[in-house]
């Protein structure tokens, strides 16, 4: 791996097809202009010559790009040189590499190669370096060199035989769990992506309007045709059923053959039908674990487990699905096998919020719907009174949120449970916390209530609900990285000043 390596030659074909796809529309415009201005055989000659020159340029550029692109590991850095006409050199220190992913599209699988994506903590949407096509063995050797060589501080980087001899495939896996086909079907049925699909229908209709110039008459005609066949109720049911089927299919394509494995230092996640993705996540980079129970899965006792990894893609991408469908009662067993640091926290009971918080979470939200209902009744006397239904709905919703909220503390891990629609339980280890803050307002201070705020190394911020002030002080003390195990909060502790 210390000597420069080239990508697989199939990279040339990938580059040519990608560039030709981008040139289709310009070539069609060029052909149309020639046919209009010149006409007949002369136009065809110009089109053939112009298209031939463009294709020749694309092929030349693809071959040169492949020939000049090399990668290697040297002096504790991943280095890549590329560029057909202008050469660009990329140096990435091994200690800054956060993840190395393998991606296999249908075309990659057809030719037995993989795409390798190398990401750092830069927070960019695109990976820092992408190797479009390399063999699987070369990808495994590179991944081993990048992730394990870094773990030993580069001490083994000067041993090419070691790097070339052991691949990631040969590393022993401690645990492996695969999502069964029946669980995948249940995950699709309860994925909760129906709202996402419905939200996507708007942009799709807008795009169709731009392309086909849909006017009001066409919409009215389609509506009358549809309602002539189906009643409005059945039409709505058909739209929802169609959207639900799309959400099932998207879950099936995305999570097909979902497999999670663990070795001594990494989680390995593989999934995907059309695009097969293999993600390697260092255990020490995991900042938080989230157990998400949506409205469809919670009554059935199922949940989705997410992990948050520092420096993995953008802020949103840092939350990865660790397992799409899991029995809530088996979450602790799953964590014991794959993330043992969080096992005790998952077994600990959730403590309810103080009774005094109910007033702040429920009654404080009622004045706004009260004023809205009064305004509707005043301005719309023949129907505005229905607005008073908002009051019980808002009351029940916030009471529901209060009832499901809670917190827990177990040694070095703190957990919070909250709900908007989905019920989310989040466990945060003290080692990932960059700051711990006690927050209160003048009103909450009078009744000894406060909230706990922490910022993780991933940059994400978490706030608890209102808790007893003494409990928040205990959270801050327990999550102190310098605190010794079983050390109690005594009178000499600086945290006593917060009392």
Automatic annotation (TrEMBL):
InterPro entries in UniProt: UCP026631, YdbS-like_PH
Origin superkingdom: Bacteria
Segments traversing the membrane: 12-33, 45-67, 184-205, 225-253, 361-380, 386-402
Keyword Transmembrane helix: yes
Keywords, sorted A to Z: Membrane, Transmembrane, Transmembrane helix
Sequence ranges assigned to domain YdbS-like PH in this UniProt record: 66-144, 257-332
Keyword rRNA processing: no
Name of the protein described by the UniProt record: Putative membrane protein
């Amino acid at each position: 791996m210390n000597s420069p390596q080239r990508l697989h030659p199939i990279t040339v074909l990938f580059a040519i097809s990608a560039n030709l796809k981008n040139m289709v529309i310009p070539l069609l415009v060029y052909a149309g202009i020639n046919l209009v201005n010149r006409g007949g055989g002369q136009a065809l000659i110009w089109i053939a010559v112009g298209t031939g020159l463009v294709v020749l340029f694309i092929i030349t550029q693809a071959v040169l790009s492949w020939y000049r692109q090399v990668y290697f590991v040297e002096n504790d850095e991943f280095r890549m040189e590329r560029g057909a006409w202008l050469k660009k050199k990329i140096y990435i220190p091994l200690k800054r590499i956060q993840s190395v992913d393998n991606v296999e599209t249908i075309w990659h699988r057809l030719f037995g190669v993989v795409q390798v994506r190398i990401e750092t903590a830069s927070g960019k949407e695109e990976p820092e370096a992408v190797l479009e096509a390399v063999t699987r063995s070369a990808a495994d050797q590179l991944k081993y060199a990048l992730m394990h060589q870094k773990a030993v501080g580069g001490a083994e980087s000067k041993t090419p035989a070691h790097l070339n001899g052991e691949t990631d495939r040969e590393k022993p896996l401690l645990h492996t769990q695969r999502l069964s086909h029946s669980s995948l079907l249940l995950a699709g049925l309860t994925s909760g992506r129906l709202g996402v699909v419905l939200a996507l229908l708007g942009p799709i209709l807008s795009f169709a309007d731009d392309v086909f110039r849909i006017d009001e008459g066409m919409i009215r005609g389609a509506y009358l045709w549809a309602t002539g066949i189906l009643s409005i109720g059945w039409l709505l049911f058909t739209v929802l059923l169609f959207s639900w089927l799309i959400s099932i299919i998207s879950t099936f394509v995305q999570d097909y053959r979902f497999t999670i494995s663990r070795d001594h230092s990494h989680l390995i996640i593989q999934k995907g039908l059309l695009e097969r993705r293999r993600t390697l996540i260092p255990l020490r980079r995991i900042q938080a674990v989230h157990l998400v129970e949506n409205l469809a899965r919670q009554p059935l006792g199922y949940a989705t487990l997410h992990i948050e990894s520092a420096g993995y893609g953008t802020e949103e991408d840092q939350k990865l699905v660790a397992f799409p469908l899991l029995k809530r009662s088996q979450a602790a067993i799953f964590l014991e096998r794959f993330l043992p640091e969080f096992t005790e926290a998952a077994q600990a009971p959730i403590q309810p919020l103080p009774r005094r918080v109910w007033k702040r979470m429920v009654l404080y939200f009622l004045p706004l719907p009260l004023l809205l209902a009064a305004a509707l009744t005043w301005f719309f006397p023949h129907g505005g009174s229905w607005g008073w239904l908002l009051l019980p709905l808002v009351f029940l919703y916030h009471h529901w949120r209060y009832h499901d909220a809670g917190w827990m503390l177990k040694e070095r891990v703190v957990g919070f449970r909250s709900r908007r629609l989905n019920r989310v339980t989040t466990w945060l280890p003290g080692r990932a916390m960059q700051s711990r803050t006690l927050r209160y307002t003048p009103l909450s201070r009078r009744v000894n209530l406060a909230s706990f705020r922490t910022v993780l190394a991933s940059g994400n911020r978490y706030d608890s609900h209102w808790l007893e002030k003494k409990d928040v002080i205990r959270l801050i003390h327990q999550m102190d990285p310098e605190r010794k195990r079983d050390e109690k909060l005594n009178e000499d502790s600086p945290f006593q000043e917060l009392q």
